[in-house]
Specification:
Strand order of the largest sheet: 8-11-12-13-14-15-16-17
Helix content: 25-40%
Number of strands: 21
Shape: globular
Largest sheet: 8 strands, parallel
Distance between the termini: 38 Å
Number of helices: 13
Strand content: 15-25%
């Protein structure tokens, strides 16, 4: 069995910063000790002097190979998890989708078939409920028992994923009994569809109108409604991809009442804005996602929410569509632009840039990108920390290296970068997944099939 010694680095977790050596054996961290105090021997020694030793990132919101609007997300589980590894993420939680009229199990089986034997890093699944009925409500209990412990519902996308308030309440009531966590896409899709129809009828067809019709008020209203339904049901609630100040305020108000309500935001809302959606020559289509990018002034509210724990997690909502041939489906009609952006490879670096700029601390960086998502979705302390007994998902991170983000150098299977030309300080140097090198010395040394499926426990914040 290979023993690996990581020496000389600063181990950063959500709770500590320690100059300690890390001993890895059998795919797990077995010990931490002060340098010079231990006399350990190892088959492989990694010198992390001047570097951070981090837990591998946990991206709790990805959509590999997701069907949407007549096409598919451009990253497969193979290409997407490889790109994740390049960016220092060693666990993804993707979304299996129930087809309307189908069972939850059929949806889960379909996603297992897509991922099995193809992933470079470990993975788990949430379940998207597209069709809430007595049969699927019963199935929720069985899925929780089997380790699929979170269920996503949509207040958006009528005719595709949309659930009405009654269906949402029933699903929340079921979750309150079985320990599951309800995840909510909180936008008033019925009202948005009216505004889309009106905009197109008036000839407002460019990508920037995607942002105009998906109003801040309609995100806030849906967030408020989701909170009240969860309150009635006695269920926890996790609001995905929070993008706007008023939605943050709704989550904060619920948390101040002591309700088990949680919020996630994404790098695109922290670093991009409606200025990108308004880029000329249809370039704005690259930035079409839902919830949409907001005016720049919302960014400071999101950062503040991350600092004061009104928001707990930063995930990517990685759902890439190529500009050529996919985003272009919406030329002349913004409603036909596939919704989604690439980002699984950029999250850890962008958040480190926020550390460099003084927006968050190093420990908070690790908390929102590694520890909190692991706790939220029942994977901690196996994932999300560097501690004895944890999986040896470890990133050696060079905090001084500089890089420029670009489609020319990224590893996601998409023909553009949402952060093209952005200079950041910090770079992943080495990545171990369960003790096995995946990235080493600027090379991918992993392989498809190394990543294993993770049945999950329930939310550890409850």
């Amino acid at each position: 069995m290979t023993r690996t010694l990581i020496t000389g680095g600063l181990v950063v977790t959500a709770s500590d910063e320690l100059h300690v050596d890390v001993l890895v054996e059998g795919g797990q961290v077995v010990a931490l000790a002060t340098p010079g105090s231990h006399g350990w021997t190892a088959d492989r020694v990694i010198d992390a002097t001047g570097k951070y030793v981090l837990p591998g990132g946990v991206d709790a919101h990805t959509h590999m190979e997701m069907p949407f609007g007549g096409t598919y997300a451009a990253d497969t589980f193979e290409t997407g998890t490889r790109a994740a590894a390049w960016g220092g993420t060693t666990t993804i939680v993707d979304f299996a989708i129930q087809s309307i009229g189908g069972s939850l199990q059929e949806g889960l089986d379909t996603w297992h078939a897509k991922a099995d034997g193809r992933c470079a890093v470990d993975y788990a699944f949430h379940m998207i409920l597209s069709d809430v009925n007595p049969s699927t409500l019963k199935e929720m209990d069985r899925l929780v028992a089997e380790g699929v412990t979170s269920f996503k519902l949509f207040m958006a996308y009528p005719g595709v994923f949309y659930s009405d308030d009654g269906q949402i309440l029933r699903a929340m009531q079921q979750a309150s009994g079985n320990g599951g966590l309800i995840m909510m896409h909180a936008e008033n899709g019925i009202a948005i569809d009216v505004l889309v129809e009106q905009a197109l009828a008036e000839g407002r067809t460019d990508p920037r109108y995607h942002g105009d019709v998906r109003k801040v008020a309609l995100e806030a209203e849906a967030t408020h409604r989701a909170v009240q339904l969860a309150r009635v049901a006695g269920s926890p609630l996790y609001v995905v991809h929070v993008s706007a100040d008023e939605a943050v305020a709704e989550i904060a108000a619920a948390r101040h009442k002591g309700l088990p309500v949680f919020g996630e935001t994404c790098p695109q809302y922290l670093f991009l804005s409606t200025d990108n959606l308004a880029e000329p020559d249809f370039e704005g289509a690259k930035y079409v996602c839902s919830t949409p990018l907001r005016p720049r002034e919302h960014q400071e509210v999101l950062w503040r929410g991350l600092r004061n724990n009104e928001l707990q997690v930063v995930s990517t909502d990685h759902c890439p569509f190529c500009f050529s041939g996919q985003k272009e489906m919406g030329r002349g009609d913004f409603s036909k632009i596939p919704n989604g952006m690439p980002g699984v490879e950029n999250r850890m670096d962008l958040l480190h840039q926020a550390v460099v700029e003084g927006r968050i601390s190093r420990k908070r960086w690790v908390e929102i990108a590694c520890a909190s998502p692991a706790r939220m979705f029942g994977l901690y302390p196996k994932k999300g920390t560097v501690a004895p007994g944890a999986d040896a998902d470890i990133v050696i991170y060079d905090p001084a290296a500089e890089q420029t983000i670009s489609a020319a150098t990224h590893h996601m299977n998409v023909d553009y970068s949402a952060y093209e030309g952005k200079r950041v300080t910090g770079r992943v140097e080495t990545v171990l997944s369960r003790g096995v090198p995946v990235i080493e010395g600027g090379e991918y040394v992993g392989h498809a099939g190394h990543g294993t499926y993770l049945p999950r426990g329930t939310c550890q914040y409850l």
